[in-house]
Structure formats: structure tokens, C-alpha cells
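Bench log. Compound arrived from synthesis this morning; before running ITC I wanted a structural hypothesis for how NAP sits in the protein. Inputs:
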Amino acid sequence: MARLQGRVALVTGASRGIGEAIARAMAAEGASVVITSRRQEGLDAAALRIRAEVAGAKVWPKACHVGRSSDRESLMTWIDHEVGRVDILVNNAGTNVHFGPMLEVTEAAWDKTFEVNLKGPWELSRAVAQRLIAADQGGSILNVSSVLGRGASPLQGVYGMTKAALISMTQTLALEWGGAGIRVNALAPGLIDTRLSAALTSSPELTSRFLQRAGVSRVGQPGDLAGAAVFLASDEAAYITGTTLDVDGGYTVG
Ligand SMILES: NC(=O)c1ccc[n+]([C@@H]2O[C@H](COP(=O)([O-])OP(=O)(O)OC[C@H]3O[C@@H](n4cnc5c(N)ncnc54)[C@H](OP(=O)(O)O)[C@@H]3O)[C@@H](O)[C@H]2O)c1
């Protein structure tokens, strides 16, 4: 029996990278998947790839900028009418617009990073939880944080703050919503080979600094997050909530 059979998953930032890998893995485990990101054409291409790789996959590509309230509301209204429910929410979309010292952060960079990485996940979590509670139905929320949310992150400070706040939000919501049968967990990826991390992975010096601390001596691939995401979303993790699982090749303990 597929582990997510009959469930509907909403995965943000799923036109490529980690989000696409999670959406593909959830579809392979029997979930119907709504995939979102800002650009419809990227989503349509991702949906085609997932359908080509997962026989019978049910994938709905629907554009939504998670930092914009009007986009979030349109997405949830569309889901209410066209899909009917969300059992699993994966808050994966993220951005990292300021590389540099904190003293040089602009207000626009601060606002954008917080809106996409924190406010969007919060508002989508609230919208999904309200619907689950109204339907007297349990569910699972997964927030994609980062190892940079585990402590100081010099030169990526604003990004690190949003990822640390996501871990805090995960813990609070897990306690507030546990009684309603809604589990809330997070993933903290290390260095994963995607477009977002290209500035790091294209630098041999930065990559080797990461690898010196990690136990598994390679950069992660988006698919490395897939198994952890499916597990935490599934009933196998029925007694796991409020946790943040490091998927970082051992970087955090290094
Ligand atoms: N790669 C790493 O090393 C790493 C490490 C730790 C944590 N993470 C986290 O993992 C998550 C996924 O990142 P990734 O590495 O897979 O990056 P990626 O390959 O660049 O993918 C980012 C995805 O998010 C979408 N997106 C960006 N801004 C968005 C917005 N405002 N609203 C909706 N969708 C948006 C992008 O599509 P559009 O451009 O079409 O919007 C794309 O689908 C992020 O939360 C990131 O912080 C990544």
C-alpha cells in the first residue's frame, strides 16, 4: 500500500529543486499533488516531468507567489473549488536575497525574505489548519527550514533568522494544533545542489568548507530530502510532531 494513498499534498516552490523532488516522491506514494511557484510555465514543465516519471500521478500545477496575500487567497479558493481539500502542506518555497554583512541589509531585502520564507508559510499553515479543523480532519504540515536556522549564519543573517523562526513556528504550531490531529514538523537541509545554492556549490572553496564539516562527503541532491518528507508526512510518523530533522550529511554535528 502506498504510504500517502488518498491524500492531497500542497507543495510550494515545487517547479524545481527540493520542492519538485518532494512532490514527485509524494506522488509516487499515492498522493495527489498541488504544486505551486511563481511561474506557471515552470510548474507546467515540472508537472510533465513528474507525470512522465510516476505512472498515473495526479498533479495540479497552479501559480502562487507565497509572499503575496492575494495569491495565497486565490490559491486556497481555487483548491476549495477544484481539489476540495489539503491533507499535507509542504512549505518549501524560499528565497535568499541578501548575501553580506547585516549592516548592509536593505529594508526591501529584509521584507522580501521574511514575506516569502516566514509570512507565506505561516499564512498557508493557518489557511490549511482552519480547513482541517472545520472538517474535523487531521493533517500534516512540513516546513523546509535550513541548517542555517540552527544557529548563527554570518553573511546570510536575514535568511538564517527566517529559518530559525520557521523552527520556532513548527514547535509552537505542533503544540497548539496537536489536539486537532495536525502534526507540524520541519526539515533542515544542509548544502543541496539547486539553483538557490548555486553561489555556494559553484565555489570549490565554499563547497569544501561545507564538506570538511559534514560526515557524508558529498553535496546533497534534492532527492535526498524526499524520503524524510514522505516519512514525516505519513502515518509512520504519527507520534512525531514539533521536530526538525536535519538532512545535512552530518554537517550540524560536525
Ligand atoms: N539548496 C540548499 O542548499 C538549501 C539548504 C537549506 C534549505 N533550503 C531551502 O529549501 C527550499 C527549496 O529551495 P531549493 O534549494 O530547492 O531552491 P530552488 O531550486 O531555487 O527552488 C526554489 C523554488 O521556489 C520557488 N519560489 C521562489 N520564490 C517563490 C515565491 N515567492 N513564491 C512561490 N514560489 C517561489 C521557485 O520557483 P519560481 O521561481 O517559479 O517561483 C522554485 O520552485 C527553500 O526554502 C530553501 O531555503 C535549501
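What the model suggests: The mean pLDDT is 98. The pocket of NAP is lined by residues 12-19, 37-39, 42, 65-67, 92-95, 116, 144, 146, 189, 191-192, 194-197 (CB under 6 Å).
ITC booked for Thursday regardless.
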